Amino acid sequence: MNVAVVGAGIVGLSTAVALMDRGVTVTVFERGIPGNGQSGGSSRIFRHAHDDPRLVELAQRSLGIWRTWEQRFGTQLVSSDGGVAVGPAVLRRFEVMTAVDGVAAMLVDGAEVPRFLPMSAGYDGPALVDHTAGAIRTRAAIGSLTELLRDRLITDEVYAVAPRPTGAVDVVAGGSTARFDRAVICAGRHTAQLAGAIGRALPVALEAHIRFEFAVRDGRVPQMACLQDASGQYSDVSAYGTPQPGGRAYAVGLSRPIAVSDDLGVADADAFAQARQETCAYVRQALPGLAPQPVGSRACWITRLPWGDDGLAVWQEGNVHIVAGHNLFKLAPWIGTAVADAVVDGELCDELRPDATLGGAPAPRR
Ligand SMILES: Cc1cc2nc3c(=O)[nH]c(=O)nc-3n(C[C@H](O)[C@H](O)[C@H](O)COP(=O)(O)OP(=O)(O)OC[C@H]3O[C@@H](n4cnc5c(N)ncnc54)[C@H](O)[C@@H]3O)c2cc1C
């Protein structure tokens, strides 16, 4: 079988490696530098804490693959920093998490959060500690997968992915048009455009926010938990934080959305300055162990499905599979294996069907 994968972000690379491991001849089309789209930057949160119990289990399966890849590539891909969540959802999330065998979570008082995140001022109310959460070493992951796929990567922009009545799929790229047995579209924030061109309207809402990096005041902290703050104590929108590799900086994002124009640019020119000001104010109060002037930033392009911030689904149009959703980094190893199975066996797993609304309220059992 000859399969094209469009997009070399974490989802496309994971899918391509899973296909390669199944003996498929795979070609990955990437118009820029692998991992420089939504997968860019040096860290992401790996967490089990989700509202949808299916995502807790799938995160656990994904962590199993991350660990296998660590052996395969000889490098750490998910740190052992752990994770802390605060806010009204933590009691329910604790129940959801601990119902899944092997997920290690505990509840502590919010005042104890600095034990896990030394730069934190602490919180009122309960906090959920996810011991096996951590920071994903995104550059190591992208670099290792890209290296494995180096002979299969074509640097070119795909203009169209066209399923033919025969079942074949034509991939029209800048340099050439080539025919494949199957194709997978994993083009991040450009996925909806490519899908729309073959008549599949995806319910993806596009927006953005900016994540800023702050230096640790004490120089280096060996262990800094990832943070999900929906407490409302220091900001009226939720916030998240991730340790950067090396333990000297911490990335913080506030989820105040910035509108995106039709050509996928940021519509409001003042939005960056406002986001910076607001994030610095949050850091001053919530994370006083960080110096409150950013040392770096990263745009977070959000491709949200209507049923939730962690919503994820795969659509099919002829022999083309189309992956869409948000917060996919942690799940990408599992997504890759599930999509590769669908491509090879012709049968998509139940969880990834759009009517399963994975990452939202589970659909009633049929
Ligand atoms: C700042 C930030 C923080 C985040 N935090 C988290 C987190 O803590 N945990 C988590 O799990 N997720 C998080 N996410 C979300 C996660 O990073 C994304 O869901 C994930 O990286 C998406 O990967 P992808 O491969 O689908 O898309 P991308 O990484 O965008 O890859 C798509 C690729 O397709 C290429 N492409 C597009 N169009 C074409 C074309 N026509 N032809 C050829 N190539 C094309 C692009 O150049 C790009 O490289 C965050 C995202 C950001 C930006």
Q: Using only CA atoms, what is the Rg? A: 20 Å
Instruction: Identify the CATH architecture of the largest domain.
Output: 2-Layer Sandwich
Distance between the termini: 33 Å
In terms of structural class, how would the helical and strand content be classed?
A: alpha+beta
The major beta sheet can be summarized as:
9 strands, mixed
> What sort of overall outline do the alpha carbons produce when their principal axes are compared?
globular
CATH superfamily of the largest domain: D-Amino Acid Oxidase, subunit A, domain 2
Pattern of helices and strands: EHEEHEHEEEHEEEEEHEEEEEHEEEH
Features:
binds flavin-adenine dinucleotide, 9-stranded mixed β-sheet, 6-stranded mixed β-sheet, alpha+beta, D-Amino Acid Oxidase, Chain A, domain 2, 366 residues, 2 domains
Question: How would you describe the overall organization of this protein?
Answer:
The protein has 366 residues and is an alpha+beta fold. It has 2 domains: 2-38 and 140-203 and 307-356, FAD/NAD(P)-binding domain; 80-134 and 205-304, 2-Layer Sandwich (D-Amino Acid Oxidase, Chain A, domain 2). 24% of the residues lie in helices and 30% in strands. It has helices at 10-21, 53-73, 90-98, 138-148, 191-196, 271-286, 332-345; strands spanning 2-6, 25-30, 44-46, 83-86, 105-109, 126-130, 134-136, 153-155, 158-163, 169-173, 177-180, 182-185, 205-216, 226-229, 239-243, 249-254, 258-259, 290-304, 312-317, 320-325. The strands form 4 sheets. Strands 4, 5, 6, 13, 14, 15, 16, 17 and 18 form a 9-stranded mixed β-sheet that branches. Strand 15 (239-243) and strand 16 (249-254) form a beta hairpin. Helix 1 (10-21) packs across helix 4, helix 1 crosses helix 7 and helix 2 crosses helix 7. The longest helix is centred in the first third of the chain and has 21 residues, at 53-73. The two termini are 33 Å apart. Residues 6-12, 29-32, 36-39, 41, 44-45, 157-158, 186-188, 190, 211, 298, 300-301, 326-330 line the site of flavin-adenine dinucleotide (FAD).
